[in-house]
Amino acid sequence: MDKIVDKEKVKGLFADDQRLMIGGFIECGSPHKLIDLLLESGGRNLTLIGNDTGFDDQKAGQLVVEKRLSRVIASHIGTNKETGRQMNSGDLEVELVPQGTLVEQIRAGGAGLGGVLTPTGIGTPVADDSRIIEVEGREYLLAKPLRADLALIKAWKADSAGNLLYRHAARNFNPVMAMACDRVVVEAEEIVPAGEIDPNQVVTPGIFVDYILQNGEEE
């Protein structure tokens, strides 16, 4: 099945009030062209789940600057001053989650698990609003699974059936997010015909991918 689509199809996937997962780590491995299409779509009151909110003068950060977000679930917001300003003013709800916990919550969402147990946060105010489970005499917080309506991810190479490869550190959150969303849209640096990627090298199987942005259509 050919999953390559043009930018108009991608823009039609966005809507107000969506929960979005966006791959990347401080802009590394972020799907900049897909974020551009999200900005063009006009979607608002969005929930963003991701490692961070980027920089206020770069792609992912513009979602904050343009006040498209109502909630952020992330590990780091320090590179985007606007995120902190909106959080302090009450315009943006921010839930800060330790990075290891966040990725495991996303992984649990993709695997159909009921959550993960973590010792991180025990003995801090984070534990006040969390369920605590004791295992063999040690206390853990229950971190519930995270899922979203739509994932925007970046791959190095995709085939037309949606099988994906990533490059180095740009892999980061992208593979786990592809498993934890109802629909997955991919921005790939290179798209090849189905069968040209060695199955033994595939990181994200095409079964998880719904759409691939057509090369050149974003210009």
Q: What is the 3D shape?
A: globular
Q: Tell me the helix content.
A: 10-25%
Which second-level CATH architecture applies?
Answer: 3-Layer(aba) Sandwich
Classify the secondary structure makeup into a structural class: alpha/beta
Number of domains: 1
- What amount of the residues lies in strands? 25-35%
CATH superfamily: Glutaconate Coenzyme A-transferase
What does this structure look like?
The protein is α/β, with parallel strands linked by helices and 219 residues long. It has one domain (4-213): Glutaconate Coenzyme A-transferase (3-Layer(aba) Sandwich). The chain has helices at residues 7-11, 32-41, 59-65, 81-89, 99-111, 174-178; strands spanning 4-5, 19-22, 46-49, 69-74, 93-96, 116-118, 132-135, 138-143, 148-159, 164-165, 181-192, 211-213. Strands 1, 2, 3, 4, 5, 9, 10, 11 and 12 form a 9-stranded mixed sheet that branches. A 3-stranded antiparallel sheet has the order 6-8-7. Strand 7 and strand 8 (138-143) form a beta hairpin. Helix 2 (32-41) runs parallel beside helix 3 (59-65). The longest helix has 13 residues, at 99-111. The protein is globular and about 55 Å long. The two termini are 25 Å apart. The relative contact order is 0.19. The mean pLDDT is 95.
Jot down its keywords:
alpha/beta; nine-stranded mixed sheet; three-stranded antiparallel sheet; 219 residues; 22% helix; Glutaconate Coenzyme A-transferase; 12 strands
Fold topology:
Blueprint: E1 4-5, H1 7-11, E2 19-22, H2 32-41, E3 46-49, H3 59-65, E4 69-74, H4 81-89, E5 93-96, H5 99-111, E6 116-118, E7 132-135, E8 138-143, E9 148-159, E10 164-165, H6 174-178, E11 181-192, E12 211-213
Helix pairs in contact: 2-3
